[in-house]
């Protein structure tokens, strides 16, 4: 098992499946700069590792992740932190293999937006999805200004990205944001039953088709990430100068 310095990202292997766990329960698995770096590195390495067929993301305890941990940027400058965020999102976009999330609890901010970059999302009944950008006086990230309208429609995307709508797991299932909802006590077992079924399917066929599905908007996703990060950086710099 490999971990980052603070044990806040736990990396394990289940046969050919790489598992990444957000592991900072005392802060509801909020993601700091070191965690962004660690997940990015794991995804980029798994992308070119022939022994890895897919990556599964999940969280420890009650939350999947409460999003960006602004309280723990350490010695990193704002520009360095935004570069980490941009690279983190890009690693999701570019990941060529299956990317599956087991959402064990609430997913907020970047944790919610990057779910739209996953191929499959299995969630607990007690999960919810929240992107409170306007409430925080910031702007959307994670490619969500492209992915949310594609997944859930323009009006529901506006509710989420503009108006801080808190989407329940039930609603997320109904509008196509996630694939399955399970009772909390059944989530781990039933999600892994599905994942193990998928792992027995012909990998090459799945991966080629995944990339065909992404082909039509892959470049747009990368450009959207660039634009969103540039706008967000400008907003944050303006806030810090107030």
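^ structure tokens above, recovered residues below v
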């Amino acid at each position: 098992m490999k971990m980052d310095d603070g044990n806040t990202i736990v990396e394990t292997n289940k046969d050919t499946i790489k598992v990444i766990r957000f592991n900072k329960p005392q802060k509801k698995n909020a993601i700091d700069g070191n965690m962004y770096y660690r997940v990015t590195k794991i995804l980029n390495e798994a992308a070119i590792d022939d022994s890895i067929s897919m990556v599964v993301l999940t969280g420890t305890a009650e939350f999947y992740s409460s999003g960006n941990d602004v309280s723990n940027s350490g010695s990193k400058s704002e520009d360095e932190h935004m570069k980490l965020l941009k690279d983190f999102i890009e690693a999701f976009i570019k990941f060529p293999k299956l990317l599956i999330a087991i959402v064990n609890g609430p997913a907020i901010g970047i944790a919610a937006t990057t779910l739209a970059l996953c191929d499959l999302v299995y969630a607990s009944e007690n999960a919810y999805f929240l992107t409170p950008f306007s409430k925080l006086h910031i702007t959307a990230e994670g490619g969500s200004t492209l992915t949310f309208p594609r997944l859930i429609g323009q009006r529901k995307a506006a509710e989420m990205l503009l108006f801080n709508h808190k989407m329940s797991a039930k609603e997320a299932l109904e509008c196509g944001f996630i694939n399955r909802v399970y009772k909390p006590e059944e989530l781990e077992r039933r999600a892994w039953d599905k994942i193990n079924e998928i792992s027995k399917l012909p990998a090459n066929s799945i991966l080629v088709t995944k990339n065909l599905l992404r082909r039509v908007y892959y470049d747009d996703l990368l450009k959207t990430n660039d634009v969103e990060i540039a706008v967000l950086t400008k907003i944050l710099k303006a806030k810090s100068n107030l």
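The mean pLDDT is 95.
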